[in-house]
Design brief:
- The chain is mostly helical.
- The protein has a domain of about 220 residues.
- The chain has 20 helices and no strands.
- α6 crosses α10, α10 packs across α11 and α11 runs parallel beside α14.
């Protein structure tokens, strides 16, 4: 990367983040999201005749690392925003979301790809796994802010956040299994997946991330009690912790994304409320700085020619995946998820399960591992459609949910009053 190219990138990134920060309230008022605007900016930049804005300038490794870093910051932000008691109190809702919904999403995605685009079954399994994780960054743009807090129940917002933060890391074994089946003999692939992937790359990642998060929280509390750390230092503490975990766990050959979420969760449990508030503000700002450019980068490297070749089948596939890979299963398992108490909640949680940076990262990872370039056009089309559809429906659907919930609450209250009247004893 030349010095000129680097400076151009810095100017574009800084200008975009600055602009989106200034008009953030207007964007939400216009029923858009910041990732949606960033994607459009990326599309427009791709029209400029400059090497920096040429998709060939960005190789798969650069794209993978950009997405990996953004994803790590995003899941750390999710871990800090969720009260540490929520996971323990609501594990009966979280377990079905990860243990039932995730495999269902993988199966539905894969079958739709196999049926509509006629790829090989193993390649369909791989692309289905890539698009299984729920994106925490797009989810945050839907679930955060005054509008969401005023209209959406807190427990449901936290459930979707926990799911998105967890399944980004848990998506790794789903992705790696078809990669191993494509690149190795079946018996070797299964053995490697069961022993190395699940036990070491997933199990060890959770353990190591949790240990680092606990130690980091303990050290911060000790430093604060002894007054050896100042305000300007500890507000960036979790950002540093996220980068340490991401890099060190990856060096050991484990899944760094899941480790970052585990570290953030344990750190959350060991820190005070004020520390979590201060750290959350810093991570929210850094989250915007790291993630907005990645959505722009996605628009910049969008494979338009390959999308055209996919034709209407590609658009049909993207729409059906977003419509069917969550909503049906959430209606079916609603009795198993106490937080989802109504069909309206099932519909909301089913629709707002966007495909985003996690799929971006796993797509680049899979292309590097298998050399299969056909992955990117399909995955990128689904990601972009998710950004557009979820971006323009977030505000109106949130308002509609709030209105319907309010009307239902009034109806239930009226029925309760009528019932009480009916059971009153007549006066003698």
């Amino acid at each position: 990367m030349t010095e000129t190219a680097l400076n151009i990138i810095l100017v574009v990134v800084g200008s975009l983040v600055l602009f989106l920060g200034i008009v953030s309230q207007l964007i939400r008022k216009w029923n858009f999201s910041q990732p949606f605007i960033a994607l459009i900016v990326g599309f427009l930049l791709s029209l400029i005749t400059s090497p920096v804005f040429n998709s060939g300038f960005w190789n798969h490794y650069l794209l993978q690392e950009a997405a990996r870093t953004s994803l790590a910051i995003g899941v750390m932000g999710v871990a800090l925003r969720i009260p540490y008691t929520y996971t323990l109190k609501n594990w009966r809702s979280i377990v079905p979301m990860l243990g039932i919904v995730m495999p269902f999403m993988w199966i539905i995605n894969s079958l739709l790809i196999y049926w509509i685009l006629d790829f090989s079954f193993l390649l369909a399994l791989l692309m289905g796994a890539i698009m299984t994780p729920t994106d925490p960054i797009l989810s945050l743009s839907i679930l955060s802010g005054k509008l969401a807090k005023d209209n959406l129940p807190e427990n449901l917002r936290y459930l979707i956040s926990v799911e998105s933060g967890s399944n980004d890391g848990l998506g790794y074994p789903f992705v790696l299994l078809p990669i191993l089946l494509i690149t190795c003999r079946p018996e070797e692939a299964i053995s490697h997946w069961l022993i190395h992937t699940l036990l070491w790359e997933v199990g060890a990642a959770v353990a190591l991330g949790a240990i680092i998060g606990y130690i980091a929280g303990y050290l911060l509390r000790t430093a604060l009690s002894k007054k050896t750390i100042d305000q300007s230092s500890y507000v960036s503490y979790t950002l540093a912790m996220a980068l340490i975990v991401l890099g060190s766990v990856k060096l050991l050959g484990s899944d760094g994304i899941l480790a970052v979420f585990a570290a953030g969760t344990l750190f959350n449990m060991t820190s005070t409320a004020k520390q979590r508030y201060d750290e959350d503000r810093v991570v929210e700002g850094m989250d915007r700085f790291f993630t907005i450019p990645v959505f722009t980068l996605l628009g910049l490297v969008a494979p338009w020619q390959e999308w055209i070749k996919l034709g209407w089948n590609g658009l049909l596939l993207a729409f059906l995946i977003l419509l069917l890979h969550r909503i049906p299963i959430l209606f079916l398992i609603r009795p198993l998820v106490p937080v989802i108490k109504s069909n309206l909640n099932s519909l909301l949680a089913g629709w707002f399960g966007p495909v985003g940076i996690a799929a971006f990262y796993y797509a680049q990872f899979s292309i590097i591992q298998t050399g299969t370039e056909e992955i990117w056009p399909v995955v990128s089309l689904v990601i972009c459609m998710s950004i557009v559809l979820h971006g323009i429906t977030a505000t109106p659907f949130t308002k509609l949910y709030g209105r319907l919930s309010s009307e239902k609450s009034k109806q239930n209250s009226k029925k309760s009053e009528q019932s009480q009247e009916n059971f009153k004893k007549p006066e003698v």
